[in-house]
Amino acid sequence: MRTDGEGGLIHRKVFDSPLGRMVLTETDGALSRLDWGGQLEDEGQSTLLDEACRQLAEYFDHKRKTFDLPIAFAPGLTGDVQRAMCAIPIGETRTYGDLAKDLGLPAQAIGQACGANPIPIIVPCHRILGAAGLGGFSAPGGVETKVALLRHEGAASLLL
């Protein structure tokens, strides 16, 4: 456990997923990051991070379709985009344009918010596609990892 320099308490926990090592971060009682790989180790005890790891394990075992965790959404429009991503059911996708229309934002803003998403998988930016392609993805493996997640969720037929 440590602080974020502004007095907020930070905990970290490592989760070994089928896609590789992930490090989850809790800040002030909410999930604030999911980082791919890295050399970070567990920092402090956290019931929230234990639960997040349990829910991720269930997700990868096809036993969970939604996450029920407190999330530290970004402020402003980015947080609005993150909330909209969380509303997309497993096995479904939306385009940047779909979300742009729903939120009254330019598609480029949606793409930027997806690219800046600090909590991939749990805030499912992988479910957002370009109008004529997959779009990008921040994970190691990039688009291949995005496709793997969509296949895992049963959305692969949407990719054909």
Structure description:
The protein has 5 helices and 6 strands. With 160 residues, the chain is of the alpha+beta class. It folds into 2 domains: 59 residues, no CATH class; 84 residues, Winged helix-like DNA-binding domain superfamily/Winged helix DNA-binding domain (Arc Repressor Mutant, subunit A).
List keywords for this structure.
alpha+beta; Arc Repressor Mutant, subunit A; 2 domains; two-stranded parallel sheet; 6 strands; globular; MGMT_N_sf
Outline the fold blueprint:
Blueprint: E1 2-3, E2 9-17, E3 20-27, E4 30-36, H1 47-60, H2 76-86, E5 94-95, H3 96-103, H4 107-115, E6 128-129, H5 143-152
Parallel strand pairs: 5-6
Antiparallel strand pairs: 1-2, 2-3, 3-4
Domain Methylguanine DNA methyltransferase ribonuclease-like: 11-72
Catalytic activity: a 6-O-methyl-2'-deoxyguanosine in DNA + L-cysteinyl-[protein] = S-methyl-L-cysteinyl-[protein] + a 2'-deoxyguanosine in DNA; a 4-O-methyl-thymidine in DNA + L-cysteinyl-[protein] = a thymidine in DNA + S-methyl-L-cysteinyl-[protein]
InterPro entries: MethylDNA_cys_MeTrfase_AS (IPR001497), MethylDNA_cys_MeTrfase_DNA-bd (IPR014048), MethylDNA_cys_MeTrfase_DNAb (IPR036217), MethylG_MeTrfase_N (IPR008332), MGMT_N_sf (IPR036631), WH-like_DNA-bd_sf (IPR036388)
